[in-house]
Amino acid sequence: MSDKLQTAKDALQTEINGLEALKDSLDQPFEAAIDVINKMKSARQGRLIIAGIGKSGHVCRKLAATFASTGTPAYFVHPGEASHGDLGMITSHDVVLMLSNSGENAELSDLIAYTRRFDIHLIAMTSNPNSSLAKHADTVLLLPKMPEACPNGMAPTTSTTMMMALGDALAVTLLKDMGLTKEDFGVWHPGGKLGQRLMKVSELMHAYDVLPLVSKDQKMQDAILQLSDKNLGCVLVVDEDQRLLGIITDGDLKRHMSPDLLQKSVSEIMSVNPKSILPEALGVEAINLMTKTPDRYLTSLVVIKDNQLKGLIRLQDCLQAGLS
User: Tens digits of per-residue pLDDT, 84-104?
Assistant: First the structure.
């Protein structure tokens, strides 16, 4: 193995060791931090303010985004800017989570003092239990003292990895406590691949008023005209109460092809009990139903709720929306 690869593996192993030690060190203060943040959230007034300087500050920015996207209102406040007016952004309803490996950064002092003056709960994340930050905090999340991955033991590496992981652990625990679903998560991620995968059937389907519809007593010539006019690959048979009675697809036409097909009634040709899905289901669930049906490959599903036809979703629609 080359020296370069060995150095990289050693660095990773050092950080892994830090994470293992962090996992083993979790205890009551972690639960206390979860409880105080949950209490703040239940009051529907406060936010989680995350602050740090230097490399810890970069971790704070990421954690603020993670908390916000998983249901905990949060934002980053730069300690230096806080000393020049941004302290006014923090209210007595908030909880402050402050990150500092040493716990002795001078830039943190004004923010620490502000939390003490206005009785704002301060959670410290630090490896120094005797630091100013730890001594003044209400809750201390103590990081294990582990060597940095840097060969000189100087650059923040293992320490920032542990901070990032511990912040993620807080966010995930809070997420689980609030019972956040995939659909809820999609509210905060409407764009990108995640937003696409969380699109609902109701967002992708063709609504009732544009569907090719016939009654069971109509002739097949009417059904074929609807099939050609609406161009959705099928005709849906409904009653006067918008209840689905059956479906006519290209496959049904091929199976019943005969000289008198156009004069037959729709009820003679239609297939009953087609596969259906709810409008609240995810588009990816519709794809799963269409592509993994044991007996045959489907190109569309009827969308039904409360025994009424609501729409039609096609495999083509899902793929065009970027789902796969």
Answer: 778 888 989 999 999 999 999
